[in-house]
Amino acid sequence: MQARTVSVGPVTAAVVNQVAASQTPNAGQIVLNGAGATFSINNIATAQDPAGAGNLTLTATNISFAVPRYVYITSAANDTAFTFTVTGLDVNGKPLTEVIAGANTKAAVSTNRFTAVTNVAVSGNSGSVQVGSFEGATFTGSTARQVTIVAAGNESSNSFVVTGTNVNGDPVSETVAGPNATTATTVSYFKTVTSVTISGNAVGALTVGMTNTAVSAWVRFDDFAPSNISIQCVVSGSATYTLQSTLNDPNDPFSPTPLSSMSWVNTSDANLVAATTTQQSNFLFAPKYARILITTTSTGSVTGTFLQSSNGPV
Questions:
Q1: ∠ CA 275-281-284 to the nearest 5 degrees?
Q2: Quick check: pTM over 0.85?
Q3: Confidence of residue 1 (pLDDT cuts 50, 70, 90)
């Protein structure tokens, strides 16, 4: 078998608002407007105070997006008595119209993603509003991070669904129980976040961020080759890392494990748990997958090479 090589690092410090800045959202989509998000609060319509029902003045006749985006309407006053009708194109380029209920001095977000917006109409004499959009969030250095939800109030009656892609680029979604004036953290590591929803109206302010741990891409081993695997982890610079493996397989044809339910176990070789130097080791019996976890903020990186025994020529 040919050697497989993966790398991870450097890993910057945790950022509490990497995905979403502080907000007190209503049930539904949370606005992804954090330090690592692609968003604009007014790229569809700049701040304006409608005199009555009618169309808002947009920044262009046809506003299109290279990547589908959620649309959000930020109200300066209590606009809960009004609705906003967004017209445009959906993710497949087909006509899409969505009615969004106005919010009270906060943002209201569409449930659909748009690839273009051609009109936004208000049902009455709302207060000042502006219309923007967001695409999603990524993490520093394109690393895969756990997502954190920091709650100022008791959100234990709410649940959050974080959606995006994992380190391998596969779609992943995880439901997180709401924290009580503390921090909740996903089990999964996300490379991108495209959506965060809350099941009910938030009690207090929330931010969505990232941890200071990161994982490499997964290495998949051959079920039909000899099980002995040689491993080498090379540290460049300064990094603390742990070698992990799993017997779970999200691609198993009979009993797939959901990505958010994967169980990753630290290696039995203590030299590769919280390691800081270059090490060699082995798996006597092949797991399904292996990965390298950087366990804290690191200026350096780790490169792992895995070589599984073979019955014949490479």
A1: 135
A2: yes
A3: low
- CA gap 274, 276 in Å, rounded: 7
Spatial distance between the Cα atoms of 211 and 15, rounded to a whole number of angstroms: 7
> Amino acid identity, residue 34?
G
**How big is the chain, counted in residues?**
314
Q: What is the dihedral of CA 73, 74, 78, 84, to 10 degrees?
A: -10
* Range scoring the smallest mean pLDDT among 61-70, 136-145, 210-219: 136-145
Write the pLDDT tens digit of every residue in 105-154. 999 999 999 999 999 999 999 999 999 999 999 997 778 999 999 999 99
Pairing of strands 289-294, 219-220: antiparallel
Long-range contacts of 155-160 (CB under 8 A, 24+ apart): 155/179, 155/180, 155/198, 155/202, 155/203, 155/204, 155/206, 156/180, 157/200, 158/198, 158/199, 158/200, 158/202, 158/203, 159/198, 159/199, 160/184, 160/196, 160/197, 160/198, 160/199
DSSP state of 65: E
Whether residue 164 contacts residue 100, with contact meaning beta carbons closer than 8 Å, is answered with no
